[in-house]
Amino acid sequence: ILNVEQSPQSLHVQEGDSTNFTCSFPSSNFYALHWYRWETAKSPEALFVMTLNGDEKKKGRISATLNTKEGYSYLYIKGSQPEDSATYLCARMNTGFQKLVFGTGTRLLVSP
Amino acid sequence: KAGVTQTPRYLIKTRGQQVTLSCSPISGHRSVSWYQQTPGQGLQFLFEYFSETQRNKGNFPGRFSGRQFSNSRSEMNVSTLELGDSALYLCASSSMGPSNTEAFFGQGTRLTVV
């Protein structure tokens, strides 16, 4: 994998459904993996920053895991709510470079 | 605590003109990064400044430049605008750099080149 890739590109679920997204990235020279949530007409908002293989982080109904050896991270949303509707972005940072490389995001729509 | 402020929010320019965008980071943050988002593309990294020094640069032509002032405010300049420069430009600030700490984003400047 040369770039940061996210799947699926979009997702439409019903309120109460649990869902998950995938972020795949090059595993070499890995330093950190960021997850952001971006609602329409607002600024991207940081959800998690993870650095260690096996990291698991949780914020309310949202959690994330990280596998740096195989180069992937999962974001889980339990019991989706309409207010969870947003684009979820992941971004990878290499060692030695002060820049984030973003995926194109997963657009989530939660219907009531 | 005020968030990241970008001005202007919207801008319409003509091909060939130049434009300057401004970003005021969160107080105390010394790192400012700039990103471009065009339809169908992820956020593309432009450059990052820390304490008035450019530490890293993305793969953009030399028409894209930036600078950072002693108060950490940053400006981004695009000269000889092209239609393809129409995009949302976001800046993000962080205390030391976008490493193992989160970045805080502004709401962006929507640039339209006609």
Plain-language structure description:
The complex is a heterodimer of chains A (about 110) and B (about 110). Chain A is mostly beta strands. In chain A, about 0% of the residues lie in helices and about 55% in strands. In chain A, strands 2, 4, 5, 9, 10 and 11 form a six-stranded mixed β-sheet that branches. Chain A starts with a strand and ends with a strand. In chain A, about 35% of the residues are buried. The mean pLDDT of chain A is about 95. By secondary structure, chain B is mainly beta. Chain B is built from no helices and eleven strands. The model of chain B has no long low-confidence stretch (mean pLDDT about 95). Chains A and B meet through strand 4, strand 5, strand 9 and strand 10 of A and strand 4, strand 5 and strand 10 of B.
Short characterization:
By secondary structure, chain A is mainly beta. Chain A is built from no helices and 11 strands. Chain A is globular, with a radius of gyration of 13 Å.
Question: Layout of helices and strands, plus pairs?
Answer:
The complex is a heterodimer of chains A (112) and B (114).
Chain A: E1 5-7, E2 10-14, E3 19-24, E4 30-38, E5 45-50, E6 56-59, E7 62-67, E8 72-77, E9 86-94, E10 101-102, E11 106-111
Parallel strand pairs in A: 2-11
Antiparallel strand pairs in A: 1-3, 3-8, 4-5, 4-9, 6-7, 7-8, 9-10, 9-11
Chain B: E1 5-7, E2 10-13, E3 19-24, E4 31-37, E5 44-50, E6 53-57, E7 64-68, E8 74-78, E9 87-94, E10 104-105, E11 109-113
Parallel strand pairs in B: 2-11
Antiparallel strand pairs in B: 1-3, 3-8, 4-5, 4-9, 5-6, 7-8, 9-10, 9-11
